[in-house]
Amino acid sequence: MPETALSNLPEFSVTELSAALKRSVEEQFALVRVRGEISGLKFHSSGHVYFDLKDDKAVLNAVIWRGVAQRLKVRPEAGLEVICTGKLSTYAGSSRYQLIVEQVELAGLGALMAMLEARRKALAAEGLFEAARKKALPFLPEVIGVITSPTGAVIRDIMHRLQARFPRRVLLWPVAVQGDKAAGEIAAAIAGFNAFDGKRLPRPDLIIVARGGGSVEDLMAFNDEAVVRAAAASLIPLISAVGHETDTTLIDFAADMRAPTPTAAAELAVPVRAELLAQTLDFERRFVRCFGKAMEDRRRHLAQLVRVLPRPESLFAAQRQRLDVTGDKLGHALRRNLQIHQARFQKADARLRDRMLRDRMAVSGERVKGLVQRAERAQKVRLAQKRRHFEGVARELELISYRKVLERGFALVRGEDGTVRRRVDSIQSGESLTLTFADGEARAVAGEGGGKAKSPKKKPAKDQGSLF
Question: I want to staple 230 with a disulfide (CB 3.0 to 4.6 A). Which of 121, 154, 187, 336 is the partner?
C-alpha cells in the first residue's frame, strides 16, 4: 500500500475505538439467545452474577445485573445447560466482549430433570427425606389446613370430598401455585400454620398442600428448596397433593404422606362417616351378642354350681346348735361367776368391820414401837463401835507423830526456804536455820565450814525426815 494512503487513514484513540466497537456490537447483537453450559459461576457481594457460557469449542463471558438476578425463575448453577437471552456488549477495561443476560431458561427437559435430581440428592443427603422423620396422620382431625389457590378447582374438589366423607373445619391459606412468588408464599404458609397458637384461630391438626396438574415448569414452585425444607420442618403432619398421579415433585419426598391427587388427599385426611357409623353399629351388635352369650354361659355355670352346693340350712345347722349350747353354758357360767364374787365380797365385808380394823391398827402400832426401839438400840451400838474405832486410830496417829519424837529430845532443822535439812552436807556456812523443838522454835546460824566440817568422833545424824 502506498505510504500516502496509510497517512490518510483516520486516527483513533483507544477509548474511541473501544466505544466504536461497543456500539457496533450492541447494534448488531441487540437481542440474542445463547445456549451453553454454565461454568466459573460467581455470586458477587454486590448482587451481580458472573459466569461463563461454554460449549465444546468456545467460551463466552456473561453477567447478570443484581436487579435482573432477583427476578430470575431459574437460579444459575454450575454445570447447568441453559439458554440465556440478552444483548452482547464489550468491556473496554479488559478488551473483551460479554453477554448481558436478561433471562435464563433451562435448555430442554433433560437439563431441568438433571437439576432436580441433583437437588433431590443433596436434600436427601441431609436426611430430610428419611422415613424416621415422617409423622403419622391423625385418624380424625378436627381442623384441616389447606394451602392452595383460592380460585382453582382444587379447593372445591377437596371441600366436596370432605363433605361427602366426613365434614371437618377447613382453614384455607391462599397462595400462588406457580410463578415467581409461589415458592415463597407456599413456604410461608406452611410455617404460618405451624406458628398458630390456637387463640385467634384453631391450630390445624393436618396440612394439605395441593395443586392441580401441569407441566414440569408449572410445578417448579413445589421443587423449590425453601418449600421442601418448610415441609420437612413442619410439626403438623403434612400431605402433599401436587399434580396428577404421574407427577412427582420434591415436596412429595419431604411430606409425611403423598397423595396422587388433591381429591385423594381429602380421602387420606378423613375416614368415611357412613362407614364409621356402620362399623360402630356392627361393633355394637357384636358386643351385645358376645355380652349376651357370656351372660348365658355364666348363668348356666352358676346353675351348675347351685346344684352342687349344699342347702343353706344344712350349712349352718351345726353352727346354730353349737351357738345354742354355748349360750346355755354362758348363762350358767355368768350366774356361777356372780355367786363366787358375791361370796368374796361378803368375806371382805366381814374383814372390814370397825373392831377388826382397830385391833389390827393396835397390833400394827405395837409392832412399829418395837421396831423403833430396836432401831434406837442398834444406832447406839453402832455409834459406840465407830467411836471406839476412831479413838484407836487417833491414838495410832499420835504415836507416829513427829512431835512425840521431839519430846524425846530431838529437833527439826529447816533452812531459809523452809525445807528440812536431813544431812550435814546440805547446810551452808552462815546459813540461817530454824530449829523446831517440842515446846517451840528457835533461830540459829550455821558455823564456819557449814556442812563440810568433819569430826572423827562425830557420827552421822539420824535422818529426821524419815519420821514423816
Answer: 187
- According to the model, what pLDDT value does residue 452 have? 42
User: Taking Cα atoms as reference points, which of 181, 246, 249, 180 lies closest to residue 209?
Assistant: 249
- CA atoms of 287 and 32, how far apart (whole Å): 78
**How many residues would you count in the chain?**
468
Topology at the third CATH level for domain 14-107: OB fold (Dihydrolipoamide Acetyltransferase, E2P) (2.40.50)
**Residue 39 parent element (H or E):** strand 32-43
Q: Which of 70, 60, 46 is nearest to 100 (CA)?
A: 60
First vs last C-alpha separation in the chain: 163
Domain 142-270, CATH: 3.40.50.9100
Domain boundaries, the chain: 14-107, 142-270, 273-310, 404-467
For residues 468 and 402, the answer to whether their CB atoms sit within 8 Å is: yes
Q: Which of 39-48, 367-376, 425-434, 458-467 has the lowest mean pLDDT?
A: 458-467
- CA distances from residue 270 to 256, 263, 276, 377, 458 in whole angstroms, order as listed: 15, 11, 11, 118, 142
Looking at residue 27, its pLDDT comes to 80
Place of cell 355368768: 334
What value, to the nearest 5°, has the Cα angle with vertex 282 and ends 278 and 283? 120
Q: Is the pLDDT of residue 236 over 80?
A: yes
Decide: 182 and 123 in contact? Cβ < 8 Å. no
DSSP, residue by residue, 166-195: ---EEEEEE--SSSTTHHHHHHHHHHHHHT
Give the residue with greater pLDDT, 233 vs 427: 233
